[in-house]
Design brief:
This protein is α+β, with helices and mostly antiparallel strands. The chain contains 14 helices and 6 strands. It has 2 domains: about 35-70 and about 310-355, no CATH class; about 75-300, Bacterial polysaccharide co-polymerase-like (2-Layer Sandwich), CATH 3.30.1890. The radius of gyration is 42 Å and the shape is elongated.
Length: about 350
């Protein structure tokens, strides 16, 4: 009887269902990391819609304020193409290999140089102290440096002006035609026009000085080479003259061959002297030539109306950015809450630090 009771008690004990474990201890962090489904995401976004609307309205309002307080600006546009000297007309072209001189390249190959020149310190720095009249600001002359808030020592003024002028200008080079397009944007229409004109004039003056300097170097080089060639020509003529005096009459093939050889040398020296003399005169002309070396395709011009400020576009971007910020915050909050619920110690520690 007692044995039966014991077996029944053991059987009752053995048949008892096990105690259910708590969800927090039974589920691992990896098992609790559920995949984000579309329904879950939409549910979370609807639950957090006020937060998303708050961020959308906040960033959109900031974008609207920025769009309203942005000053109107005016742009002046201009374009030009570089003029390339005809290498075939230059006397130096026939002697390029002998003298080691390079012929000018095509307009397309020089356009990138002009684009860099338009934004260089060498061209912009001298413009800082140039004066102009700004009708929008009243009578009286003003300098470009004062308009761009450049103050301090002359070096500092030039540095600040170059930086501001570089930001205010945009340069584009057409690969197909080699045309260089310039756009200058400032809060004043007259300043945009004046700065664009001064920059084009600076490009032309810089280029003229550069070509005149190069022509002067070529002229000095050719002048020295011409003096040597004339001495060699004189020596060749003296040798031919001495041969003819020593051999007034000759019928032998050796003497005939010697005479022809000396004559060819004289002819070669005469041709060389003639070509160098032509190159020398060409270099002298180019040394003092001050004709423009760029062709203006479009003179600087600016509309009487300010550039579009694209307020609607800025506000739309602000609204989209605000909504994106709200969505990211909402999803991040939900993900951290789910990881904390399954016992992720790192997430719990992170949330404690935030508190």
């Amino acid at each position: 009887m007692s044995d039966t009771l014991v077996r029944d008690e053991r059987g009752a004990v053995g048949d008892a269902p096990p105690r259910a474990a708590s969800p927090r201890s039974a589920r691992s962090p990896a098992a609790g990391a559920e995949d984000l489904t579309l329904v879950r995401v939409m549910t979370q976004l609807l639950r957090d819609r006020r937060r998303i609307l708050f961020w959308t309205a906040l960033v959109g309002t900031i974008a609207l304020v920025i769009a309203l307080v942005t000053r109107p600006v005016y742009s002046a546009d201009a374009s030009f193409t570089p003029q390339v000297a005809d290498a075939g007309r230059s006397g130096l072209s026939s002697l390029a290999g002998q003298l080691g001189l390079s012929m000018p390249g095509s307009a397309a190959s020089q356009s990138q140089f002009y684009a860099e020149l338009l934004r260089s310190h060498a061209l912009l720095a001298p413009l800082a102290t140039d004066t102009l009249t700004v009708p929008e600001l009243g009578p009286g002359p003003r300098t470009f440096a004062s308009l761009f808030k450049a103050e301090g020592s002359p070096e500092r003024v030039a540095e600040v002006f170059v930086e501001q002028a570089t930001r205010a200008s945009a340069v584009h080079v057409s690969i197909q035609t080699g045309t260089v397009s310039l756009r200058v944007t400032t809060p004043w229409r007259s300043v945009s026009l004046a700065l664009a004109n001064r920059m084009l004039r600076g490009v032309n003056e810089y280029n003229v000085r550069s070509r005149q300097s190069q022509a002067a170097e070529e002229r000095r080089f050719v002048e020295a080479r011409l003096a040597v060639a004339r001495q060699e020509q004189r020596a060749a003529e003296d040798r031919l003259e001495g041969f003819l005096r020593a051999n007034r009459q000759f019928v032998s093939p050796e003497l005939t061959f010697a005479r022809e050889r000396l004559q060819r040398e004289v002819n070669l020296q005469q041709a060389l002297v003639s070509t160098l003399a032509q190159s020398y005169e060409d270099a002298r002309i180019r040394e003092v030539r001050d004709t423009p070396v760029i062709t203006i395709v479009e003179s600087p011009s600016a509309s009487t109306l300010p550039d579009p400020r694209r307020r609607a576009f800025k506000v739309a971007v602000g609204l989209l950015l605000g909504a994106l910020i709200g969505i990211v915050i909402s999803l991040a909050k939900d993900a951290m809450a789910r990881r904390s619920a399954v016992g992720d110690m790192e997430t719990d520690e992170f949330l404690r630090q935030l508190r």
